[in-house]
Amino acid sequence: MHFHDDALFPENQEKLVITVAPYGPEWELDDFRDDLPLTMDEHVQAAVDCYDAGATVLHIHVRELDGKGSKRLSKFNELLGRLREAVPDMILQVGGSISFSPEGDGADAKWLTDDARHLLAELDPKPDQVTIAINTSQMNIVELMTADDIAGTSFERPEVYEAYREMFVPAGPTWVAEHLKRLQANGIQPHFQLSSIPQLETVERLIRRGVYTGPLMLTWVGIGGGFDGPNPYNMMEFIRRTPDGAVLTLETLMRSVLPVNTMAIAMGLHARCGNEDTLWGRKGEKMTSAEQVRQLVRIAGELGREVATGKEAREIYKLDERYADADATLAAIGFAPNRKPGQVGFTHHS
After folding, report:
1. In which domain, by residue range, is 137 found?
2. Where does the pLDDT of residue 214 fall: very low under 50, low under 70, confident under 90, or very high at 90 and above?
3. DSSP symbols for 28-80
4. Domain CATH code at residue 156
5. Structural domain tally of the chain?
6. What is the rounded distance in angstroms from the CA atom of residue 276 to the CA atom of residue 221?
7. Which cofactor does it need (predicted)?
8. What pTM, to 2 d.p., does this model score?
9. Residue 350 forms part of a structural domain
């Protein structure tokens, strides 16, 4: 991304889109019962509370009544239907993992089979987005967690800690290409959750080969454990390599969430918060998802940056746009054009 001399002036920045992830599938209910929803009514109320606080993108998981993360698409369909009525202006973004909660003591934190994950393209009513990982990688979400982060939570149990320590994201090339094909065919926008520059480069190659032809919605996920860590040098290099036409959100975990989001807001990027990312405000003090959203709205106000309404967020996300081919996609996103036969030197759009 290119930063002009006036790029940090809020009047020259897009309005802020806040993504909230208030369903915390990795946590057990007793870890923060005041904020983690169980019943369908509680799931819907969490969305309403976060929307009223200022969030316009809702990252969705859903629980069964036993407290475990649901793997039933019918449960997601039920929630999506309720959310369309309760928060019609919110962008509904289903987490592409569906669920990664361990099922019982010592169980592995397993993702669903490839075929089951493809069924996310068949959700009814359909979500606006489904998140997608690129390239199979380790996802050890406890690597950066401190003793304070897990104090008093289920992660203090060794079997739970080990399950998440050994977790990985299956996202091989065959599955990715097929999943992108199905999502696009059903009018669902992929939201790329990327951990590093190599994954961004793979996305660029998919676009250059015409596998994906739409707006580029990215989240840089700086959670360590196989992903980039929340190091400003990692973050800035990812930002530098992101094309100007992309929409970029920054995500990290635990008490790195607030400083990283503050930097995102100041730089004209977009923010993500919620109990899936952190349970904490100040050290030792829990903070609900809606409280985290209100905090970001306040910081944006201090910086003079406006927060997008639901309608404005949908325009920023270009939900209804698709492009004719690879060339049109590269031009719209801001990547250099493909090399034509016999063409030498660096390529650029005229």
Report:
1. 13-333
2. very high
3. -GGGSTTTS--SHHHHHHHHHHHHHHT--EEEE--B-TTSSBP--HHHHHHHH
4. 3.20.20.70
5. 1
6. 13
7. Zn(2+)
8. 0.95
9. no
